[in-house]
Structure formats: C-alpha cells, structure tokens
Amino acid sequence: DTAVSQTPKYLVTQMGNDKSIKCEQNLGHDTMYWYKQDSKKFLKIMFSYNNKELIINETVPNRFSPKSPDKAHLNLHINSLELGDSAVYFCASRSTGTGEAFFGQGTRLTVV
Amino acid sequence: GNSVTQMEGPVTLSEEAFLTINCTYTATGYPSLFWYVQYPGEGLQLLLKATKADDKGSNKGFEATYRKETTSFHLEKGSVQVSDSAVYFCALSRQGAQKLVFGQGTRLTINP
Questions:
Q1: pLDDT given for residue A57 in this prediction
Q2: Would you call A41 and B107 a contact, using CB atoms and an 8 Å cutoff?
Q3: What share of chain B is helix, strand, coil (3-state, %, to 5)?
Q4: Of A2, A9, A100, B1, which has the fewest beta carbons less than 10 angstroms from its beta carbon?
Q5: HSE-up of residue A35 (Cα within 13 Å, Cβ side)
Q6: Site from B48, B102, B109 to mutate, A interface, most A CB atoms within 10 angstroms
C-alpha cells in the first residue's frame, strides 16, 4: 500500500491552462504539505495543512489554491499556468509523534 | 528564523570511500534533526534522525550526531556504494512546529 500517493506523475500543459494535482495519504496523519522542487533540487514549502486547516502559506502566488476536503487529501489547483511553474511538486504528510515526513513520488509539471 | 545549510555539491567519490556531508543549522530552542535521501525519480525518504543533543541517528551504514555546541548534524558513512548515489537533504523541525525546514540538498555520485 502506498503511504502518500499523488496523481498525475507527469503533467505537460500549455501556458494559461488550469490544472490540478491530487494527493492522498493513508497514514492517518493530521499534517500535510505541498513542496515545490526546482531544477537544482531546492525544496520550497508552499502550503501546510493541519486537520483540513491551512496553517502555512509561504508567499505563493494566489494562482495556486490548495484544497483539503478531509485530512487524508490535499489537492493543489493551479490557475493560469506560467513557464516558471515548471517544477516537481511533492505532497507529504507528517507524523505528529515521530516528526517524520512521508513524501509522495512527485508530479513533474512542464509548462510549454 | 530557522535555517539549514549544507555543504555545496555535487560530491563525487569512488566506491568504498569515506563520506562526509556537512550540515549546520540555526534554530531557537531544541529542534529535531533529520537526513532525507532522494533517489533518482523518487520522493524523499527519511534516512535517519536525532531528537536531542548528543543523539546519534544511524541507518544503512550512515550516521549523524546531533552536536548542539557546533549546531551541526554531519552525515557520515565509512564505505560508500554505487547505490548510495542520490541527493541528500538535511532538515530540522522545532518541537510542536508545523514547518519542516530543508537544506538545499547535496547531490552525491559514487563511481565504481
């Protein structure tokens, strides 16, 4: 069973389009994140949710809108995609007890 | 604020060489410290962790010791293998804090 799964794994789209990435965790964690990883592998936190409530929003353009329908799901919707949005996006969930974060496989977004 | 600084990469070594990847941190209080590893095409996975000063985390032959006096958590392995080629991330989290802060990552390549 995959602990944190995100779909799709690859996403190629044109500038100006709107797209969504879905994430689900089956670990029972209360905390979930979205991270963006650039071509140099630098990881930048975008959003953090705790039990469906937005806790961290790290100066991300408002074209990015996270949605958490329940604590096992955290989706990311992106409007009006730009070339600079091309990156790998990782979803993660985190155990409050151990502090360990579990990551999904990533979604490679390419905007052309 | 809290931050993590890792040694600049990339690092290239021969098989069976000794590995050190330096990591220093800035944080208030007593953070937990982590090393994550990212193999090609995959998400990050926890390699080891330490939650208090002088703790040593270890896994798969890798070790790191939480040094409060030098605010460091250097990753070491006595004899690396080709399969250790990956990107390594040092990270910290303050007790009770939502945010998991990552260093910039260090790409390691092991040649046979």
A1: 83
A2: yes
A3: 5, 50, 45
A4: B1
A5: 25
A6: B102
Q: Token pair of A84, please? A: 């600079």
| Closest residue by Cα to residue A6 from A86, A53, A66 | A66
Nearest CB partner across the interface for A101, out of B41, B42, B100: B100
pLDDT tens, residue by residue, B62-111: 999 999 999 999 999 999 999 999 999 999 998 777 788 999 999 999 99
Nearest Cα neighbor of A94 from B86, B38, B101, B30 is B101
The amino acid at residue B11 is V
> Which pLDDT value is given to residue A1?
66
* Count of CA atoms in the C-beta half-sphere (13 A) of B23: 30
Report how far residue B66's alpha carbon sits from residue B24's, in angstroms, rounded to the nearest whole number: 10
Contact B32, B99 (CB under 8 A): no
Segments of A1-112 assigned E as strands = 4-7, 10-13, 19-25, 31-37, 43-50, 53-57, 64-70, 73-78, 87-94, 101-103, 107-111
Note whether B2 contacts A: Cβ–Cβ < 8 A. no
Q: Residue A83's beta-bridge partner residues?
A: none
